[in-house]
Specification:
Layout lengths: L2 E5 L5 H13 L4 E5 L6 H13 L4 E7 L4 H7 L5 E6 L7 H8 L8 E2 L5 H13 L3 H30 L4
Parallel strand pairs: 1-2, 1-3, 3-4, 4-5
Length: about 170
Amino acid sequence: MDVAIIIGSDSDWSVMKKAVAFLREFDISVEVTVASAHRTPDRVINFIRNCHAQDVKIFIAAAGMAAHLAGVVAANTTRPVIGVPINSEPFKGMDALLSTVQMPPGIPVATMAVNGAKNAAIFAAEILALQNDNLKNKLAKYRAEMAAEVERKAETVKLDFLKGAD
């Protein structure tokens, strides 16, 4: 198993589906579970232990509110942990962002933007690509396709502009 995703609540799944879709598109094996750092801490720890037994390389932890899921995961593994703060009321994800990014020295969490599921998956793929030339080539192709799409859009806007469109 390459990547394990832990979400703090089933309500986070609508955001994190994007990460799973990207990982699958790039043929990266992924496991997903729901486990709460506060309501089911034993489930979190057991999941991490099981992932270690399966040689999971990277953890992605996503939670809203002021949950410390990514920090709890990072405290229980020496493997890279990527945190995804989830937008939730009443603070629009700012509480989740701060609780994910503000880690004590020695227990790092790479933190993405609020609802940054796809970037978490891309970052995980980039880490895995350090040891996998095939994945490295797929990522290079992905970036080239993104750049080509921007060029196409720029040309469309330029043509619209030259026609005097409002």
